């Protein structure tokens, strides 16, 4: 039986069930801790070492995989979320690892600063976003991890390690996308820039027209992404550039955004579980209702980068070399529209772009990439058929040199990672050095990093 001191008793809970945001993966940790400071986390890691327990730190639990799951000790970092320092002269911010991106965005805005690029949501903790190389879109912009100047990592064998490009550089490059395998991130120093507005332009375009002009479209704005509506010819393109123009934010429309696009759409998706052949028509109608007209907005950068992901979903996303984008999308389009297995797909297929970096396990390591993401919604948290789509999607992504997004469920094996990541073996060597007894490993990490089957998360 695990013995806790008074402080750990105060912040611990038993019989706490955890599920990720999409409610696809669940687990029951032996002990669940709501930490508030570094000392709490250090005590828990020492506890894990003493009793040979696995330990995982979680933030929002937004990863649509079992990456956060454990049957050992689980550390929730929601209250480990302070801003330690804002350096206005050098435009940097140092924060505790549990701070959520949306809170960080708001605090930076108050101080006239902003992150250079963001993903589609800001619910994640900064440590979670870094650990999975969360990205936005813009071919000359790298992922969020690349904006980090330094961090403090709590390891099993060496305690706290400060690392940056000047100090413990190998650990730094590995920890910037470590999927929690090296230790627990305690604090992060991030390079920001002056707060800025983005002028966005969103408009419809035909799928083939985009592919025929893909290179120029990718370079046509600072930030470019587009969404394809399966079983149709329709896409919407979103472009955004910095501006000093007066704000023109998106107006909220309760009936359109909540009643029709959320509640009615979710109900129709629920019906489509029994009548999947209605999905092509539903995709077309939703496009016509919400996306067939051009839209222009001007607002603070973080408000423009983010959008509503609606309700829980199965999701898969892979990064392929930029030069393979057109062929891969053509093949995916052809399968979606002509597959003989009667597989029908929800909208959207999301296409984004990212610059290369030198982070060891980043999907954009040493290459510019196109991220392609697919989803299947779970209306009212109910399951929908998705495995045939996933299998074909992964087959296509593999054939074009794809690397899966670490936060999302995938079937990539250790041998495949060794082939596609030049620094993979070095990462594993470092992992064994910093965590010799594997206390930070869980089913996900054992499965993908070491080809060990230890499935305790429930799908």
TrEMBL record:
<feature type="domain" description="FAD-binding PCMH-type">
    <location>
        <begin position="25"/>
        <end position="195"/>
    </location>
</feature>
<keyword id="KW-0285">Flavoprotein</keyword>
<dbReference type="InterPro" id="IPR016169">
    <property type="entry name" value="FAD-bd_PCMH_sub2"/>
</dbReference>
<dbReference type="InterPro" id="IPR030654">
    <property type="entry name" value="Sugar_lactone_oxidase"/>
</dbReference>
<keyword id="KW-0274">FAD</keyword>
<dbReference type="Pfam" id="PF04030">
    <property type="entry name" value="ALO"/>
</dbReference>
<dbReference type="InterPro" id="IPR010031">
    <property type="entry name" value="FAD_lactone_oxidase-like"/>
</dbReference>
<protein>
    <recommendedName>
        <fullName>D-arabinono-1,4-lactone oxidase</fullName>
        <ecNumber>1.1.3.37</ecNumber>
    </recommendedName>
</protein>
<dbReference type="InterPro" id="IPR016166">
    <property type="entry name" value="FAD-bd_PCMH"/>
</dbReference>
<dbReference type="InterPro" id="IPR016167">
    <property type="entry name" value="FAD-bd_PCMH_sub1"/>
</dbReference>
<dbReference type="InterPro" id="IPR006094">
    <property type="entry name" value="Oxid_FAD_bind_N"/>
</dbReference>
<dbReference type="GO" id="GO:0031966">
    <property type="term" value="C:mitochondrial membrane"/>
</dbReference>
<dbReference type="InterPro" id="IPR007173">
    <property type="entry name" value="ALO_C"/>
</dbReference>
<keyword id="KW-0496">Mitochondrion</keyword>
<keyword id="KW-0560">Oxidoreductase</keyword>
<comment type="pathway">
    <text>Cofactor biosynthesis; D-erythroascorbate biosynthesis; dehydro-D-arabinono-1,4-lactone from D-arabinose: step 2/2.</text>
</comment>
<dbReference type="GO" id="GO:0003885">
    <property type="term" value="F:D-arabinono-1,4-lactone oxidase activity"/>
</dbReference>
<dbReference type="InterPro" id="IPR036318">
    <property type="entry name" value="FAD-bd_PCMH-like_sf"/>
</dbReference>
<comment type="similarity">
    <text>Belongs to the oxygen-dependent FAD-linked oxidoreductase family.</text>
</comment>
<keyword id="KW-0472">Membrane</keyword>
<dbReference type="Pfam" id="PF01565">
    <property type="entry name" value="FAD_binding_4"/>
</dbReference>
<dbReference type="InterPro" id="IPR016171">
    <property type="entry name" value="Vanillyl_alc_oxidase_C-sub2"/>
</dbReference>
<dbReference type="GO" id="GO:0071949">
    <property type="term" value="F:FAD binding"/>
</dbReference>
């Amino acid at each position: 039986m695990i013995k806790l001191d008074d402080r750990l008793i105060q912040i611990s809970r038993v019989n706490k069930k955890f599920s990720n945001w999409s409610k696809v993966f669940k687990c029951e940790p032996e002990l669940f801790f709501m930490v508030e400071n570094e000392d709490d986390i250090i005590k828990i890691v020492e506890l894990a070492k003493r009793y040979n327990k696995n330990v995982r730190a979680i933030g929002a639990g937004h990863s649509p995989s079992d990456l956060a799951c454990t049957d050992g000790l689980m550390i929730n970092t929601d209250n480990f979320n302070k801003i330690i320092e804002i350096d206005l002269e050098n435009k940097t911010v140092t924060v505790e690892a549990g701070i959520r991106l949306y809170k960080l965005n708001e605090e930076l805005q108050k101080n006239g600063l902003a992150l250079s690029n963001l993903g589609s949501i800001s619910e994640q903790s900064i440590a979670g976003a870094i650990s999975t190389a969360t990205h936005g879109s813009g071919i000359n912009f790298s992922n969020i991890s690349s904006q980090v100047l330094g961090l403090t990592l709590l390891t099993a064998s060496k305690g706290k390690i400060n690392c940056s490009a000047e100090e413990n550089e190998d650990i730094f490059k590995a920890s910037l996308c470590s999927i929690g395998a090296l230790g627990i991130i305690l604090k992060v120093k991030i390079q920001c820039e002056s707060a800025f507005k983005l002028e966005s332009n969103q408009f419809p375009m035909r799928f083939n027209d985009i592919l025929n002009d893909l290179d120029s479209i990718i370079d046509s704005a600072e930030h470019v992404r587009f969404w394809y509506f399966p079983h149709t010819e329709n896409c919407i393109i979103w472009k955004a550039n910095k501006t000093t123009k007066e704000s023109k934010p998106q107006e909220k429309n309760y009936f359109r955004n909540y009643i029709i696009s959320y509640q009615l759409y979710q109900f129709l998706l629920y019906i489509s579980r029994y009548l999947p052949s209605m999905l092509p028509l539903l995709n077309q109608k939703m496009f016509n209702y919400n996306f067939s007209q051009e839209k222009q907005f001007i607002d603070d950068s973080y408000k423009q980068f983010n959008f509503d992901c609606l309700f829980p979903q199965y999701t898969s996303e892979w990064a392929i070399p930029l030069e393979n984008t057109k062929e891969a999308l053509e093949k995916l389009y052809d399968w979606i529209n002509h597959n003989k297995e009667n597989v029908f797909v929800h909208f959207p297929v999301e296409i984004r772009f990212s610059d290369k970096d030198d982070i060891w396990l980043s999907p954009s390591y040493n290459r510019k990439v196109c991220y392609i993401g697919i989803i299947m919604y779970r209306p009212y948290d109910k399951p929908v058929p998705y495995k045939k789509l996933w299998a074909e999607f992964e087959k296509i992504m593999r054939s074009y040199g794809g690397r899966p997004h670490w936060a999302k469920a995938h079937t990539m094996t250790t041998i495949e990672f060794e082939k596609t990541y030049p620094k993979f073996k070095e990462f594993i060597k470092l992992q064994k050095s910093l965590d010799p007894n594997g206390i930070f490993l869980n089913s996900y990490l054992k499965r993908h990093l070491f080809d060990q089957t230890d499935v305790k998360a429930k799908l």
